[in-house]
From TrEMBL:
Entry protein name: DNA mismatch repair protein MutL
Upper lineage: Bacteria, Pseudomonadati, Pseudomonadota, Gammaproteobacteria, Lysobacterales
UniProt domain DNA mismatch repair protein S5: residue ranges: 211-329
Family, as annotated: Belongs to the DNA mismatch repair MutL/HexB family.
Keywords: DNA damage, DNA repair
Keyword DNA repair: yes
Function: This protein is involved in the repair of mismatches in DNA. It is required for dam-dependent methyl-directed DNA mismatch repair. May act as a 'molecular matchmaker', a protein that promotes the formation of a stable complex between two or more DNA-binding proteins in an ATP-dependent manner without itself being part of a final effector complex.
Amino acid sequence: MPIQALPDTLVNQIAAGEVVERPASVVKELVENALDAGARRVDIDLEEGGVRLIRIRDDGGGIPSSELALAISRHATSKITSIEDLEEVATLGFRGEALPSIASVSRFAISARPRGEDQGARLEVDGGRVGEVVPHPHPEGTTVEVRDLFFNVPARRKFLRAERTELGHIEEWLRSLALARPGVELRISHNGRASRHYKPVRDGGERLRRVAEALGEDFTRQCLAIEHAAAGLRLHGWVGLPTAARSSADQQYFYVNGRAVRDRTVAHAVRQAYSDVLFHGRHPAFVLFLECDPRQVDVNVHPAKHEVRFREQRLVHEFIYRTLHEALASTRAGVAAAAAA
Ligand code: ADP
Ligand code: MG
């Protein structure tokens, strides 16, 4: 075969392989877009575990009708303009590939109205085939609809699991998000029935209420509050008491500058801090937020952005370990006393 440039739709479908693993990844990308647009409320309607339908409506800044076509074009973003911007990116998105990727593997529609425009607009994309922007009534904000995910990618469709499993992944992702953004109201419905409603709470003391809603009161009744800053780093949130340790690592939420991440340095520091207060095979529960200078952390490691790279990995490890070790000291005394008795 001669060398030839791939058509846009195929390029997007290939990129979708990295960004869109399952319905939960679509929900993640779309809700992150809503948050980046300053939404205070996000409605998430699902059908058949998100495979049949994912509809996300937000009350954020909306998109001008003149930019709708750009929003679904590859590498088009309103979030960065230079490599310097990328160095200190504060938004969850920046790669400009989620919408074109999702639109290339589904029956997709985006409708929006920005503040100041008196009419909304809508654009449909069918498996990558882009339609016309047409006038469409819409309140201020944006709605994205994704139907029949992977209808044109049978190899991917085969890997979708049962409705309940896919729904479980979506709910888990939304739980993680609800913990990070307590001020945002989230309403979730599945197959026409309201399934979850995270009411907005104010910053400060009320935050624990959101944690209780997301993780249950078993966690909030047996946790320590963490708040410590040093060397340009700040760690805050809650860690479960050793007595509330779990048989699996199912309640471990860690965020770097508001972004949920999985990181080995972090995981190791936490495990080490708990090492002498936990029995072997037990796992701590925690909701922890690390804030640092965005230039100290690279978030552009993988398209799905679950991973980060710290510039000063050892400093971060030491800071997390020390902070938690000290916080857990009181419980260690308790454990020693119990052992001596
Ligand atoms: P990225 O988030 O990396 O910029 P996306 O493909 O997810 O890329 O979105 C492309 C662009 O479309 C965004 O930069 C933003 O300008 C616009 N956009 C997408 N979703 C929304 C939304 N819910 N509200 C406002 N603008 C949006
Ligand atoms: Mg995005």
